[in-house]
Amino acid sequence: MVRNAGRFGSIAIISWIIMIMGKGVIMAASAYFTILMVKTQFPQCDNPFIPAILVSLFAYMIGSMFLSVFTFSASAIVHCFLLDEETGGSKDTPTYLQSFLDYHDTVPKKTAEDTDKKEEPPAKADAPEDIKE
To answer: Residue ranges per domain, the chain?
Structure first.
């Protein structure tokens, strides 16, 4: 049984979305400022889009390197949190996190046997007589 697969899957998806958005913003801003600079500094240049494309590719590579640090740190934080959660905390656990961990220790966790059990629907209550259909 793989523990915490859902948590790692969700952090991977969120990190991927932030990476895509971050790279897009970095590339777009770099291209925009390149076009502005080329138009103002070199008015004789007819097509400022060629330097903008080159700068965008370079910005993509640099942005990928910087944003990969975010992905790695988000994964490391999740690892540390899950270890702290499973061990019940330590003396270094902040007090506001300790109450969160204590609450989740008292909540019963669902097992595979719990999900296999069929729950009976609640008994149908009688409608008051003054309400007519």
So the answer is: 25-94
